[in-house]
């Protein structure tokens, strides 16, 4: 599905260079991000993890162009990120997508096609190519049988797939997900990560932002730990080798490491005195 023509295929698909950001409120200055540097290669699945208030949301808004850069730069395919290349290269699934859907009187078909609005314009009719793209992403995510159902009638896991389909219908090179498993039960979380594995096999680059290190470290190729600074950036296995002191520094409170089924894993479990 992903085809890139006229792009610099040797450059990282996404690069964050020396990005810093501060909030100014009355007489106080709050540093949200300091000198963040990250590169994401084509086809990579990267998870950015950190506690609430760590700067993840600020970085996400800078990536999406919702906030303007104060320092540093963001590159897509080696070129400065702009409104145009964000709209054509980046697909986004909001943390609030599932809750928004519950009060939205539209069918799955209508929701997914609405992802083409920026590309086609608000009042243009959809054409044969658009409907072919619709069928492709619905088939890819195994939700074609939901095509004419009301979005409000779906389960949390089904709704999440619909909004991923909406993000994918523009054929983006990068899929950005903000706390995508929020409010989804364990069974549907596993199903969700199966979808991401499929998308990665299709060539989609995935950037997932979350505070939950539980399941994501089993899925992502690389992990970046953010808490104002970038405290760690490495492979899944390197992240698993971090000790409690290193994880505690990232999360801002004591962390315990626990094991399940003889496999060492990381959980955000504060010590209880």
UniProtKB/TrEMBL annotation:
Instruction: Spell out the coiled coil positions from the record.
Output: none
| Taxonomy, superkingdom | Bacteria
E.C. number, please? Answer: 3.6.3.-
Give a yes or no for keyword Transport in this entry.
yes
User: Keyword set for this entry?
Assistant: ATP-binding, Hydrolase, Nucleotide-binding, Transport
- Among the Pfam families in the record, one is ABC_tran
Instruction: Say yes or no: keyword Hydrolase present.
Output: yes
Residues annotated as domain ABC transporter: 14-252
InterPro entries (UniProt xref): AAA+_ATPase (IPR003593), ABC_transporter-like_ATP-bd (IPR003439), Metal_Ion_Import_ABC (IPR050153), P-loop_NTPase (IPR027417)
Q: What molecular functions are annotated in GO for this chain?
A: ATP binding; ATP hydrolysis activity
**Can you tell me which family this protein belongs to?**
Belongs to the ABC transporter superfamily.
Q: Which PANTHER family match?
A: METAL TRANSPORT SYSTEM ATP-BINDING PROTEIN TM_0124-RELATED (PTHR42734:SF17)
Q: What protein am I looking at?
A: Zinc transport system ATP-binding protein
């Amino acid at each position: 599905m992903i085809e890139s023509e006229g792009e610099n295929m040797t450059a990282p698909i996404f690069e964050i260079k020396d990005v810093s950001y501060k909030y100014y409120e009355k007489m106080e200055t709050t540093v949200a991000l300091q000198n963040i540097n990250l590169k994401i290669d084509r086809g990579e699945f990267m998870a950015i993890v950190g506690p609430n208030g760590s700067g993840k949301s600020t970085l996400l808004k800078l990536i999406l162009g919702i906030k303007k850069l104060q320092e540093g730069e963001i590159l897509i395919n080696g070129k400065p990120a702009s409104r145009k290349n964000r709209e054509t290269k980046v697909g986004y699934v909001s943390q609030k997508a599932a809750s928004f859907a519950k009060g939205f009187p539209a069918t799955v078909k209508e929701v997914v096609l609405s992802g083409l609005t920026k590309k086609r314009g608000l009042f243009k009719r959809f054409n044969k190519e658009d409907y072919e793209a619709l069928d492709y992403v619905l088939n890819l995510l195994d939700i074609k049988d939901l095509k004419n159902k009301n979005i409000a009638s779906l389960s949390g896991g089904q709704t999440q797939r619909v909004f991923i389909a909406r993000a994918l219908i523009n054929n983006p090179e990068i899929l950005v997900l903000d706390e995508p498993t929020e409010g989804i039960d364990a069974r549907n979380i596993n199903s969700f990560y199966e979808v991401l594995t499929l998308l990665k096999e299709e060539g989609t680059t995935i950037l997932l932002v979350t505070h939950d290190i539980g399941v994501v470290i089993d899925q992502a190729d690389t992990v970046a730990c953010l808490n104002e600074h970038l405290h760690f950036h490495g492979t899944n296995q390197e992240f698993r080798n971090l000790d409690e002191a290193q994880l505690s520094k990232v999360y801002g409170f004591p962390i315990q490491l626990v094991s399940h089924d003889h496999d060492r894993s990381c959980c955000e479990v504060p010590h209880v005195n």
